[in-house]
């Protein structure tokens, strides 16, 4: 995975040292969440950059201890606002221009990303936060601005859909 470089400025330099350190330390994790939501490298970068740009001015007010939760909330609400406006610009292609260089089971990863893409956006957001970002139900509810009960029901529905997804069905000999 490429290292993401994000620089947000508006001409002022006061207080940016802590923000720059935060972006350097947590930028890749934010990008990973965005990629799992969008399924697209460039769109994930755009989402993270937009969330960081929206959050930058709140750095001093929110403080470094709570800033990641603040940025994640902005990231997920921005993601939700993007799909609500029904933007249909770029389309993914069947073949990527570059080949993977690691020995990751790309077929399994691609199947998982495709199965996630089949989920409704709310369910996808809950699954990414709960299982890929390892947030609690309460933290997930706080990030998305929903009730814990909604997190539980969305998670249950999403896991049921993923279990029955033909994209994730493997023959017994694939696991040996």
Helix content: 55-70%
Share of β-strand residues: under 5%
Report the average pLDDT across residues.
81
Radius of gyration: 17 Å
Structural class: mainly alpha
CATH architecture of the largest domain: Orthogonal Bundle
Number of helices: 8
Dominant shape: globular
What does this protein look like?
With 176 residues, this protein is mainly alpha-helical. It has 2 domains: 12-89, Rna Polymerase Sigma Factor, Chain: A; 105-168, Arc Repressor Mutant, subunit A (Orthogonal Bundle). 62% of the residues lie in helices and 0% in strands. The protein is built from 8 helices and no strands. Helix 6 (121-132) crosses helix 7.
What brief labels describe this structure?
176 residues; mainly alpha; Rna Polymerase Sigma Factor, Chain: A; 2 domains; 8 helices; 62% helix; disordered C terminus
């Amino acid at each position: 995975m490429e290292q993401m470089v994000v620089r947000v400025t508006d001409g002022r330099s006061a207080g940016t040292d802590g923000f720059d350190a935060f972006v350097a330390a947590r930028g890749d994790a934010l990008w990973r969440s965005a990629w799992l939501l969008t399924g697209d490298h460039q769109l994930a970068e755009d989402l993270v950059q937009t969330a960081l740009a929206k959050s930058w001015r709140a750095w001093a007010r929110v403080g470094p201890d709570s800033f990641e939760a603040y940025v994640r909330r902005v990231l997920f609400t921005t993601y939700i606002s993007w799909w609500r406006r029904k933007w249909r610009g770029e389309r993914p292609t069947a073949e990527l221009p570059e080949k993977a260089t690691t020995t990751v089971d790309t077929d399994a990863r691609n199947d998982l990303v495709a199965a996630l893409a089949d989920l409704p956006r709310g369910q996808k957001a809950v699954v990414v936060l709960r299982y890929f970002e390892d947030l609690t139900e309460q933290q997930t509810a706080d990030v998305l601005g929903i009730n814990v009960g909604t997190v539980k029901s969305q998670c249950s529905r999403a896991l049921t859909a993923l279990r029955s997804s033909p994209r994730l069905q493997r023959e017994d000999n694939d696991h040996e």
